[in-house]
Design goal:
single chain, about 80 residues, mainly alpha, 2 domains, elongated
């Protein structure tokens, strides 16, 4: 934790108008994009990122259902 605190303070010293919460959000976002990049580099990735709040999970489920139904409809039309 001391290293993280020092990193946040160092960033704030360089960019004074940024708060510690903004710095931590930026760090988390950077870690997320690094993880996405690493997953994309490996050809056999089987990881799925799921949003953590209940509303986002419901939205994701709805989007998945919609995608499956659209794929099924396209598949049926392709057979005709």
């Amino acid at each position: 934790m001391a290293g993280l605190k020092e990193s946040v303070q160092s960033f704030q010293n360089e960019v004074s108008e940024v708060g510690s919460r903004d710095v931590l959000t930026l760090m988390l976002l950077t870690q997320y994009f690094d993880a996405i990049k690493e997953i994309g580099v490996t050809g056999k990735a089987t990881t799925v990122f799921v949003p953590s709040n209940p509303g986002a999970v419901a939205d994701l489920a709805s989007q998945m259902r919609s995608g499956i139904l659209q794929a099924d409809a396209a598949n049926l039309q392709g057979r005709r």
